[in-house]
Design brief:
By secondary structure, the chain is an alpha/beta fold. The chain has two domains: 210 residues, Alpha-Beta Complex (Quinone Oxidoreductase, Chain A, domain 1), CATH 3.90.180; 157 residues, Rossmann fold, CATH 3.40.50. The chain is built from 15 helices and 15 strands. The strands form three sheets. Strands 3, 4, 5, 6, 7, 14 and 15 form a seven-stranded mixed beta sheet that branches. A hairpin with an 8-residue loop joins strand 1 and strand 2. The chain starts with a helix and ends with a strand. The structure holds NADP nicotinamide-adenine-dinucleotide phosphate (NAP). NADP nicotinamide-adenine-dinucleotide phosphate binds next to helix 4, helix 7, helix 8 and strand 9.
Length: 399
């Protein structure tokens, strides 16, 4: 499927070569020969939840006057959002996490935050394509799609959003929009961490022992299913009350981290080929000793200090601190025969294409813990703030 996309999608090449911005009036010609237009050209505003400043108390505001998204590059599409999935990142971004680095990514000339408001949160979407840029060949209007939107772009807690065709994939036919919105961000993160960073694939997992630290949340519940579909042996740490839940997703062995020092029980097991750390904190103090030494085994943590460093120290000092962190951790553990790596969310339509096939083959299901209406976004954030997730929180924008 991703091979087909590669052949068809000249849009990706266009995007990579940083083409100049395209006048939206030109983009509108895309629909001229079609029986009807999918978006109303007179629309300049839309309903959305925005924040106008960072902070944890009440910055979420509903507006009917958010700017209607505009196609700025010929490989972009406008999607009408049916459902939006939330992630811990949304709560942290609301509170200001990553503001400095993400502002720079939004506008390379802007090293200070402040110009990004009103900011729309929400990284996951499932919806319908309403408008295609001139260079989009792989998608057409009315296609049902899903995507994970990078954090430097306007998010999905709105009726419409503009995304790059490189970030979008056709939604699995077997999933509703609500289910589909629970998958892209955690799936893209798990894929990036396990496949791109960890070197795993469907062809090399059969004899591998994988440990997932924190298996009951969004990333963990997806990673268990993906690794089981590829034949790996999967051990999971989680609270006792999540044991049946993660076993139901395929976990072979479950260790309750609330019943005493988890490292002692994990230490009595056979060593692992790869550890995916969704928890951070002091896990790295003991987790790397659980890896097979001198066999290329990897510890991949999703809890990264990099954006926090630049938030606290500024861009220049933060980057120096980041380089020092990378050098010290990687070298220290390399000397002991294991690899220390950081995993990152990476938006990828081709990865979502492959995941869509796994979903439609019945290998992966969505794990939706809670759903909220579009008027209940503050309540959805309150649910996220409580933690102890057992899957995903989804906002239904269109019912
Ligand atoms: N680097 C990146 O680009 C990137 C991308 C996505 C996510 N992340 C990070 O990855 C982490 C996981 O994301 P997520 O979406 O899966 O979060 P989540 O949905 O909130 O899940 C976290 C899970 O960890 C469990 N947990 C907490 N402490 C634990 C411990 N000591 N041992 C075992 N399990 C524990 C929680 O349940 P209980 O508290 O009930 O045990 C919860 O189910 C987050 O820190 C997130 O910020 C990073």
């Amino acid at each position: 499927m991703s091979h087909l996309r590669h052949l068809v999608s000249s849009g990706r090449l266009f995007r990579l070569s940083k083409v100049p911005r395209v006048n939206t009036a030109v983009c509108c010609h895309v629909s001229q020969n079609r029986p009807f237009s999918t978006t109303d050209r007179s629309m300049t505003v839309m309903p959305a939840w925005v924040i106008d400043k960072y902070g944890s108390h009440g910055p979420l505001r509903f507006t009917r006057n958010a700017n209607f998204p505009v196609i700025n590059y010929p490989n972009e599409v406008i999607v009408r959002v049916h459902s939006a999935g939330l992630n811990p990142l949304d709560v942290r971004m609301r509170d200001g996490y990553g503001a400095r680095s993400l502002s720079m990514k939004r506008d390379p000339l802007n090293v200070n935050s402040g110009n990004e408001f009103p900011l729309i949160l929400g990284r996951d979407l499932s919806g319908v394509i309403m408008e295609c840029g001139l260079d989009v060949k792989y998608f057409k209007e009315w296609d049902e799609v899903w995507a994970a939107i990078p954090p430097w772009k306007q998010g999905s807690l709105s009726e419409f959003v503009v995304v790059s065709a490189n970030e979008v994939s056709h939604k699995p036919k077997s999933m509703s929009h609500t289910e589909a919105a629970a998958v892209p961000y955690v799936a893209s993160t798990a894929w990036s961490a396990l496949v791109n960073t960890g070197g795993l694939s469907k062809d090399n997992c059969a004899k591998k022992r994988i440990l997932i630290i924190g298996g009951s949340g969004g990333v963990g519940t997806f990673a268990i299913q993906m690794l089981k579909a590829w034949g790996a042996h999967v051990t999971v740490t989680c609270s006792q009350n999540a044991e049946l839940f993660v076993r139901g997703l395929g976990a072979d062995h479950v260790v309750d981290y609330t019943a005493g020092p988890v490292e002692e029980r994990l230490g009595s097991l056979a060593k692992f080929d790869l550890i995916l750390d969704n928890v951070g904190g002091d896990t790295e103090r003991w987790a790397l000793t659980l890896l097979k030494p001198w066999c290329g085994a990897k510890f991949v943590t999703l809890v990264t200090p990099f954006l926090q460093n630049t938030d606290m120290l500024g861009i220049a000092d933060g980057m120096v601190q980041n380089a020092a962190t990378v050098a010290s951790k990687v070298l220290k553990h390399l000397a002991k025969g294991v690899h220390y790596r950081w995993g990152f969310f990476a938006p990828s339509g081709p990865a979502l294409d492959e995941i869509m096939e796994m979903v439609d083959a019945g290998q992966i299901r969505a794990v939706v813990e809670d759903t909220f209406g579009f008027s209940e976004v503050p309540q959805a954030f309150e649910r996220m703030e409580k933690g102890h997730a057992r899957g995903k929180t989804v906002v239904q924008i269109r019912k």
